[in-house]
Amino acid sequence: DAGVTQSPTHLIKTRGQQVTLRCSPKSGHDTVSWYQQALGQGPQFIFQYYEEEERQRGNFPDRFSGHQFPNYSSELNVNALLLGDSALYLCASSPPVGVMETQYFGPGTRLLVL
Amino acid sequence: QKEVEQDPGPLSVPEGAIVSLNCTYSNSAFQYFMWYRQYSRKGPELLMYTYSSGNKEDGRFTAQVDKSSKYISLFIRDSQPSDSATYLCAMSSNSGGYQKVTFGIGTKLQVIP
Q1: In chain B, whose CA is at the least distance from the CA of A106?
Q2: Chain B nearest CA to A105, separation (Å)
Q3: pLDDT at residue A99, as a whole number
Q4: A57-90, pLDDT tens digit by residue?
Q5: Cβ of residue B2 closer than 8 Å to a chain A Cβ
Q6: Do the chains contact at B6 and A42, CB–CB below 8 Å?
Q7: Which parts of chain A sit beneath pLDDT 50?
Q8: Dist CA B30 CA A20 (whole Å)
Q9: Neighbours of B56 (CB within 10 A)
Q10: In whole angstroms, what is the distance from residue B33 CA to residue B3 CA?
């Protein structure tokens, strides 16, 4: 089992650009959540996808959007990048409802906005 | 006031010491309590998972939850240099069949050989 995988591992962009990050969930998991972790901070919840729809969202602007595909993989898109978007972006997957476990995280994508 | 409060440290202990890490919270709806370990530049790794109040032990790790005090702890016995990492507490509530997880800021732990 490969666990949760994310790509790319590192990314450098400039202000105003757009970025797409990708995530493949752990085998058997159907729910994907995205988090932003700024340096020295805990992860902050961005949104969660289930059955290809955004199910819940944290306190992030509309510049942050996502998508989930039929195979449960997911993308995070950020438009009009700001310097403050520099962070580690984490994807976490969790199993179907009714299996009382918690989330498993991928290694993250480190985004630097210049 | 943040929903989850955690001392960022750093906390330095000698090898073999017992480590105590703690978090407090304000949201009474939290039901699931987790501890994650995060090595530098890596994603968080789930260590312990507890539902509601009580204790849970896994090898050298013991998690305690006191819902009446809104206080959770992680104890590490016989600490090793490989335990040096940032420890994140996290809490979630189950609403409508899904979880939303809130993290603490993380406590940086250094175990000195």
Answers
A1: B43
A2: 6
A3: 47
A4: 889 999 999 999 999 999 999 999 999 999 999 9
A5: no
A6: yes
A7: 98-100
A8: 32
A9: 15
A10: 13
